[in-house]
Amino acid sequence: MTRMIATAAALALAMIAPAQAATVYNTLSGEAPLVIAHRGASGHLPEHTLAAYELAIKMGAQVVEPDLQLTADGVLVAIHDATLTRTTNVADLFEPRNGGYLVSDFTLAEIKSLTALPTRTASTSYPDYTPSMADPFKVPTFQEVMDLVNAHNAATGAQIGIYPESKTPNRFSLNAKIVEEMKANGFDGSVPNTFIQTFSHEGAQQLAVMQDLLGMTNGIAALGYVLKTGDAYGVYDATTGTISSLDYLAGFATGVGVNLGYDLDAGFIAAAHALGLAVHGWTFRPTTLEAAEDQFLPWIAAGMDGFFTDYPDLAVAVLDGLNPAPVPLPAGLPLLAAGLGALVVVRRRARA
Ligand code: G3P
Ligand code: CA
């Protein structure tokens, strides 16, 4: 009898205790890598739409990424390409201007009349998700993206970060507008996991100076392709055709956002970490959990600090798999209490 009760108590303890030791991460912070929703949950819904950002947050992304371009009337909008062609129905509604459909040739009002289209594996709906906004598939302004994130953070106490990209070519005016709007909306360094990124390393340096002048402390990420010359790692800046050394980048950036190919390896991550630079890789596009494990696990082992992914749900699933949640206390506690209580009674009786 005593053995049975002791076994019940041990079983209850085992149910409450975590199933395995916590995973040790080789990231710069020692925390799990960041799940960065690349253009929102763009593997599921039309990229760079409020619905894609909202779904990404619901899926557990800690950061959402808007690429930013300027309209003809000077408004920041979230869209990847310099043109409206690939991701909207612009060609159905407008004649070409200057031979095409540059974002910079259309006003915000005109762009708002368009509908964002799904690309790649995306669709216009996702199971069990109803967008909270009236018009979920429009090209959003940067202001609307920040409003969505701020509203979510205020309502839930979460601290979702943003990772805007100043699209090249590098422009002082574009960079200044991004920094000023971020500051005006509270993204001044006080919201964790918030960064500004650009492929122009000169632009990244400019953004860092602008932030300093405004007393802002968001991360700055220089984007590019890892290239190794001899033993020295560098990041290729396609806007100038030059390779920036990690030493140079560490002078003004807090991290690098790098393509998953070329010379990227664990050695690069270690070299970047040695200089205090975080490494965020792009773009992870697994469509199954098995593919996600294949793609994410080696980079988790190598210490990558963040994943730009179109499928934040799969990145979250892989990370959750490394640290399964313990059995909730309410389920295990009554059994534990009963087992321990009975054990005490039996022992007292035995002594009497
Ligand atoms: O910003 C990181 C990654 O998004 C860079 O690629 O072309 O998707 O903006 P792209
Ligand atoms: Ca981007």
From TrEMBL:
Matches recorded under SUPFAM superfamilies: PLC-like phosphodiesterases
Residue ranges annotated for the GP-PDE domain, each copy included: 33-319
GO MF terms held by the record: phosphoric diester hydrolase activity
GO biological process, one term: lipid metabolic process
Membrane among keywords: yes
UniProtKB keywords: Membrane, Signal, Transmembrane, Transmembrane helix
Coiled coil: none
Pfam families linked: GDPD
Residues annotated as signal peptide: 1-21
PROSITE patterns xref list: GP_PDE
Segments crossing the lipid bilayer: 327-346
PANTHER family: GLYCEROPHOSPHODIESTER PHOSPHODIESTERASE, CYTOPLASMIC, GLYCEROPHOSPHORYL DIESTER PHOSPHODIESTERASE
Record-given protein name: Glycerophosphoryl diester phosphodiesterase
UniProt source species: Rhodovulum steppense
